[in-house]
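Q: Sequence in, structure out?
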Amino acid sequence: SLMNSGFCYIDARDCAQGFRLAIEKPLKGTHVFNIANADIAYTKTTAELAKQVFPNVPYTPETDDPREGLISIKKAREFLGFEPKFDWQSEVKRLQSEGKI
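A: Exactly. Output:
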């Protein structure tokens, strides 16, 4: 369901990148990072989905991406240099162009 997914997803290659960056970064103490793709798993905009599922909760975007994820990866971007490279829409287009789907 929409509520259980948090609208987010992660490509295994991006997840591995996030883990590698966290292991290699010389950070002191304990840190928690959200590692997720930068966009949502739906074609609607994040604002539309947030209003549909959470009508009484204000939504303030962190980026200019109309489909940005609701799980913030801002800290991982700033501290680790994490940047997802594999979004599902580009992967579908690639597979279609290769005749695999």
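The mean pLDDT is 90.
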